[in-house]
Amino acid sequence: MQWVDGTTRLYIFNGLFVSDVMSNLLKLLSYLAVWATLIYSRQYLVDRGLLRGEFLTLLLFSLLGMMVMISANSFLTMYLGLELMSLCLYAMVALDRDSAISTEAAMKYFVLGALSSGLLLYGMSMLYGATGHARDQRGRAARLADRRHHRPQPPRLRAGVRGRGDRVQARRRAVPHVDPRCLPGRADRRHAGDRRGAQARRVRDAVRLLVNGLLDLAQDWQQMLALLALLSMAIGNITAIAQSNIKRMLAYSTIAHMGFMLLGLLSGVVGGNLLNAADAYSTALFYVVVYVLMTLGAFGMLLYLSRKGFECENLDDLRGLNRRSPWFAFVMMVMMFSLAGLPPTAGFYAKLAVLSSAVQAGQLWLAVAAVILSLVGAFYYLRIVKLMYFDEPKEAGPVPGHSEMRVLLSLNALHCSYWGSCPRG
After folding, report:
1. pLDDT tens series, the chain, 425 aa
2. What single DSSP character describes residue 247?
3. Residue 122, CB half-sphere, CA atoms under 13 Å: how many?
4. Residue ranges of the alpha helices (H) in 154-266?
5. What is the DSSP track for 20-50?
């Protein structure tokens, strides 16, 4: 056990595990996502006969994998946590064994995970071969030593960065590795919590590796992240427009949102200057926190509107929701406005923060492109608002629901509105 920087960072298990402020915050965010998922999904699971011990066990073990990933300080610990989380998610996708769609989605998800795991191990092996250490901090120290002796950086180190970058793309849903085709077969109860909690883990992964471990190669990975951010925002937003399935639409929008998160990560180092680093990485973390809240609310609304024998997953299923349940139409509208980045919601200030960091870092062209692509993305979010408020409902009568879901959805929407009104409160 070793304390570093006073009492702010603790290394245990021979440096394989680290506990600090960032890891504690991201763990709390993961706990929140899984807790909300259990509340949102309870009635959904009961109606379909899926509220079994297997679901709860897999969900908690996937949460354990996230915790290991978040506090990992070594490639070995990172990979163990990742596989623990991923294997549980594969099984959760296929939990409904009588559904051919769920089985197909699980197979697609498994193939994607196996491919990205191979890319991750390739990148890890290159970084280990270049630095001689499996821990991010020691790898960084080795690179600093190389610079002091004026030795050129080995090509395999850059190859390792790109190999890890491919895995970052696959697991963060940045292009070109995307998995929206897996999502329609995954029930909302699983997607809402497992993927939102995993977003927090991915941010930690990127910060620990790129910022803490490979800061001296910032010029290399910043170019990679800039390209990924642009392609993610473009392909995610443009492709989501053509979707009629809400879950598929939200999956493609996830790609676009991760592009915005990358704007914060790539804006921390400007010509070797770290003065903007703290603000830039804080904006990326803030964006992920807000994004988790927004998508929890969006998928929670889909679960609330679903019932036994009916899945709320198509755009037409939201027609005329305002006439059936005005309050929850407003809740869904707040979520869509926040995802679109419209004021005064929290999503607006999250996007404004990462765009400000990009401009301060001299990435003006990327910030302009992000604003233009955000306007493109606003179309499919506002289309849902139009369907809820201006179209005739497909069926009459109020929307049934349980009190705990009503309270949590209302709190979710109010938090998005409050954070938007008091972004620095």
Report:
1. 555 554 577 878 877 888 888 888 888 988 998 999 889 888 888 888 888 888 899 999 999 998 998 888 888 888 888 899 989 988 888 888 788 888 888 888 889 888 888 888 888 888 777 777 666 554 444 454 454 444 444 554 454 444 454 444 444 445 544 455 555 545 544 444 444 555 555 666 666 667 666 666 777 777 888 888 999 999 999 999 989 899 899 989 999 998 898 888 888 777 666 667 777 788 888 898 899 999 999 999 999 888 887 888 888 889 989 988 899 999 999 999 999 999 888 899 999 989 998 888 888 999 999 999 999 999 999 999 999 999 888 777 778 778 888 899 999 988 888 766 664 54
2. H
3. 14
4. 155-172, 188-206, 218-241, 246-265
5. -HHHHHHHHHHHHHHHHHHHHHHHHHHHTT-
Report the distance separating Cα 192 and Cα 88, nearest Å: 15
Which amino acid, 361? A
CA distance linking residue 411 with residue 258, whole number of Å = 25
Report how far apart, in Å, the C-alpha atoms of 334 and of each of 191, 290, 299, 393 are: 20, 13, 13, 20
The gap between the terminal CA atoms of the chain, to the nearest Å, is 36
**What global pTM score does this model have?**
0.81
User: What is d(CA 331, CA 325) in angstroms, rounded to the nearest whole number?
Assistant: 10
Specify which residues 12 forms β-bridges with: 17
Residues 6 or more apart in contact with residue 218 via CB below 8 angstroms: 210, 268, 269, 272
Nearest of 289, 286, 291, 420 to residue 344 by alpha carbon: 420
Where are the alpha helices (H) located in 306-363, listed in sequence order? 321-324, 326-340, 346-360
Strand partners, 270: 273
CB proximity list for 45: less than 8 A, separation 6 or greater = 51, 55, 189
- H/E element, 4: strand 2-4
Both tokens assigned to 281:
């990485």
**Distance between CA atoms of residues 340 and 22, nearest Å:** 27
Other CB atoms within 10 Å distance of the CB of residue 155: 10
Q: What tokens were used for 154?
A: 């080995």
Beta-carbon contacts of 326 under 8 Å, excluding residues fewer than 6 positions away, are none
132: left (phi over 0), alpha (psi -120 to 50) or beta: left
> How far is the C-alpha of 361 from the C-alpha of 271, rounded, in Å?
9
Q: Identify whether the C-beta of residue 4 lies closer than 8 Å to the C-beta of residue 11.
A: yes
